[in-house]
Amino acid sequence: MTAGPRRIVLIVDDDIDFSESLGRLLALENYSVLRADSMASAKKIVQQHPVAVALVDIRLGSGNDGLDVVRELRRINPDLMCLMITAFVSVETAVQALQAGAYDYLSKPFHSEDMLSTLDRCVERIQLLDAQKLNDVRLRQKQQMEALGQLASGIAHDFNNILAVLLSNLRLLEERIGTAQPAVTELVTEAIGATHTGSELTSRLLNFGSRPEDEDQVVDLAAMLPDFAMMLRRTLGKEWSVRLDLPDQLYMLVFSRGLLETSLLNLALNARDAMATGGTITIKARNHHVGPVSATEQTRPIIGEFVAISVIDTGTGMSDHVRTRAFDPLFTTKKRGDGNGLGLTMVDNFVRTHGGWMEIDSTLGQGTTMTLLLPGRFQIGPDGANI
Q1: For 175, which of 84, 198, 294, 351 is 20 to 30 Å away at the CA?
Q2: Domain boundary among 90, 110, 130
């Protein structure tokens, strides 16, 4: 069994024999141990490793003061739990240690049981603080989503009125043209379909965060994606090419087709914006099995059959900072007026409320792959067998 990130301990002591002996003891208790003998080496370790607890000797050689070491380490990592080790037990020493930011102190020589008990309390406190931070983050996200829901509902109501006018005029145009001009009729039909998709989107906005089951239908990606790619080519312009990468067999999906198309369109427009002078957008779909091992690796309790739909661009890519914040409400890298930071939030919300998740694979200068992983349904063959 390997030590987790919350069981990484740093020993800061210039007594090599004591440090090694203490390190061996902690290793037997499933702690991962790092050692330093000065402030400089301790700072370097804390900057490079996710240290949870630091055991710091109050008296270090080479002019290093253990209290100063604790202050500096906690400046680098305010969440670091520090235990002061001292052979000079006094009320003044204890007060100084606590004022420096130490959680507790141990007096030499100490019993291993006392030291391990104190470390266990540190780990428990870290876990409680982690849980509290997670709850705080979830509360803020909930409040943000509620505020966004109110904003989105107001926008959707006004936008619905505009769509009603567009749809009425397109229907009239369709009747006037009839079958006399097939090419124009096809364009009008696509425009009417896009208007219906927009209407479904506004309905979704009016119920932001909910999952309207009555909109779900069986979606055959093998039939849907070629039509979607054709519409996308006309929408993006000649500087951007669109290619499909589909296997012979794909699981069926049970979703709102309009919301799925809207989500893919959002990703495609983001991909276009990442390729300002043109490029290639690839839409790739694959059946994807998530077994117990891969589910554990992804730290999500999802096991079963999924369809992975990827939108791949050859654009500028994302930095680590942008990638980690990509799904945050109102976060955008676009200039004012070009984006509101809601697009990816809504796509992520749509995927999660339907039992899936999203993944981002991106490197600066090497493009981005945005993947929707959605629960798949087996296709039923004419003999009643799963295909």
Answers
A1: 198
A2: 110
